[in-house]
Design brief:
Elements: H1 2-21, H2 29-39, H3 42-53, H4 65-93, H5 102-127, H6 132-159, H7 164-191, H8 194-224, H9 227-237, H10 246-258
Helix pairs in contact: 1-5, 1-6, 2-5, 3-4, 4-5, 4-7, 5-6, 6-7, 6-8, 7-8, 9-10
Amino acid sequence: MWTFAVAVVPAIVLIVYIMIRDKYEREPIRKILLTFFAGMLAIPLDLLIIGIFGLDELPYLFDGDILQQIGTAFFSAAIPEEISKFIILFLLVWWSKDFNERMDGIVYAVCVSMGFATVENVMYVFEDPSCAWGRALFAVPGHFLFAVLMGFFLSLAKFTVKHKFRNWTMTLLAPILAHGIYDAILMVSDVASEGWSLLLTIVFYVFIFLLWRLGLKKISQHVESSPFRYWREFKDKQQDVNDISDDQQIDNMKDFFDR
């Protein structure tokens, strides 16, 4: 029972956390649950992508254990996993009326990613219970942070006019790079000498710290840019204004941020 709890609870905690951070216009619970459970489908989609394109064979085109481990980190993990999560995310929320501010991209990306991470975590933990706490403290939060980057740039691609190509590119490139570097450090440390393994462990902790710092910054940026924040402040100050509807005022606020 404890292994199942350790495998599942971290994802739930992180979903609750991102829902709390989305403080100005929170998403409906039904959509949160839908994206979470749909995210679980990214696991078979990931395996399908690997099988169709033979991505698990590409690392063996490189010479040497270190290059093969780096290739495995990217071609067998980061690239197919992040593409799978992106496909689910895009199909579910891009045209949804609930995706109506920048923070929503992060919220839904996290829900999809936590669905993926939950299934992956259960598979790993039940195969090897000794990895439960390590995955709870690092692997699941890692997926959370990759999702923050994906959702951050997806929202920019939807709600900003400038730099469309860059934002679309970064929607996939940013989480793939973060995920690939994360896995590569761990995988290379497994085949490196004792001294290099120790150094890579330090590098890993520094990388996690920087990734958390970046992720929290991106969350804050989208929270504070919410048009609903300014609409609330406007309503508090203008209680007697009745000639403009709430929907019209919100649309005006969104237009302001899109410029």
